[in-house]
Amino acid sequence: YTQTERQSLFWDDYLWTYKADSFLPHQRLTDDDTTDAPILISHELLPTSKHILINLTHQVPDFYAEFTRIIELVSTNSEQRAKAREKYR
């Protein structure tokens, strides 16, 4: 789950190109999508399958309780780390 459309586009591109010899099957989630891709990227829509949420936003999403597991990426920057700790609480 990303913060903006720009961030969604970045991750979509990154997952295609991060290694020349590997591929992570993924898709950007849109209104008309029905997909079996294991990785779905969105900044506004929710997938129907809700196993793991990788939250790349600065907030706690309202829908977090719908997921079995949540993954948060935390910066080594002390200010960002403090915000992540507050979000965890």
Descriptive account of the structure:
This protein has two helices and four strands, in the order αββββα. It has helices at residues 5-17, 78-88, and strands spanning 26-28, 39-41, 52-55, 69-72. The longest helix is centred in the first third of the chain and has 13 residues, at 5-17. It is globular and about 35 Å long. It starts with a helix and ends with a helix.
* Main sheet attributes: strand count, strand direction, barrel closure: 2 strands, parallel
Strand residue content: 15-25%
Rg: 14 Å
Total helical elements: 2
Shape: globular
Multimeric organization: single chain
Distance between the termini: 19 Å
Spatial order of strands in the largest sheet: 1-2
Quote the average pLDDT. Answer: 86
**Class derived from helix and strand content:** alpha/beta
* Strand and helix order: HEEEEH
